[in-house]
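Our collaborator T.R. sent over the components below with a one-line note: 'Predict the complex.' Nothing else. No constraints on interfaces, no templates requested, no preferences about which chain binds where. So this is a plain run: every listed entity goes in together, and whatever single assembly comes back becomes the starting point for the next discussion.
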Amino acid sequence: MPSQREIRRRIGSVKNIKQITRAMQFVAASKLKRAQDATLQSRPYRDKLDEVLADVASVLSAEEHPLLKRAGDGTRLLVLFTTDRGLAGSLNTNTIRFAARTIAESTGELRVVTVGRKGNAAMRRGGVPIAAAFEGYGDRPSFADVLPLSRLITDDFLNGTYASVDLIHPTFVSTLVQRPVLERVLPIVPSEDTEGIPGHQFLFEPNAASVLEQLLPRYVATRIYQAVLELTASEWSAKMVAMRSATDNAQELIEDLTLTYNKVRQANITREMIEIATGASSS
Amino acid sequence: MPLHLEIVTPERLAYEGEVDGVVCPGIEGELGILPHHAPLLTTLGVGELRIRTRGQEEFFAIAGGFLQVRPDRVVVMAETADLASEIDLEAAERARKDAERAMAEGFTEPADMARARAAMERALLRIRVAERRHREGPRSR
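Returned assembly:
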């Protein structure tokens, strides 16, 4: 049986841990709010861009721009999005496992670009060839932050290094659920025009091809930016949940230890009373 | 009939509302859009975007993007869009100085030069739009 003092010390340290995990839980909750807002704010642009792309694509055939060409044979590139830091529950584990499965199922040459240190470490351990490694974009990713990555991918796709590019990133479904997804970015597959305005009714200035020229790199950058936002929202919600259960566990531990402490204290008192009683009767 | 205008950037919805007309920095010169304009899709340059609503004018500094005119609405998709009154003049000045310094130091990569020049252009535009706005205040006709 541990001594009273030892138990008291342990209760103290568990209380400290609880305080820290609780603080982290609240920090994560406020960052999650911001990340969710950023995701919502970015949606109109993406939707509009899809619309414009559909408008342009309806007048141009797929062969008119290299970014729209159908995927041929060749090296496949995966861009894996993970967090830089841990303490995010099973978020990174799930994403990396999903990536490993995708890699195992894929035939032919394959390279990986990692965003975030966790994914980079895992891919290195797994011996997957890494083409480039980016660190995470922090708590408040901006559109300008993702441009280097987007340019790298677009350039390498255009010069024929890769035949196709996919993103693997967690999506924020709810606070409790984040699901990894595989998303094709290149070659671009324009969605159908849902609004029913055929593209040939539009005047293009200077012409459709040059609008498309400007449009496609932005489309790629927007997709990547969206992936980063989803990652950030997922990261903070996973952290918040992980820290909440850590706080709950600490509370439970404190209750258990307090119970043990009281038992030990009671046992000591009883023992001392018996000792006094036996001492008194023997004298 | 007013014109329904939306200005979106990758990071946010910068403006949404009914306006009487809008003048955009088109890639080949200024472009004025009034109600009942024919459907149009064009690229935009770096410049000042003016919105006219009931005799009031508002200014945005915008950089890079597209203008889409549909029968029911006008959509401006820009990489950045800052309302003149919200521009941080000091930050813009700093950005201009940084770009100046970067350009003076010289480059080995032509891409870096292009980036610095673009940064410079954006900073100058923000300064111009913000200063004009501060000097004149909201204009009315």
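Summary for T.R.: The mean pLDDT of chain A is 85.
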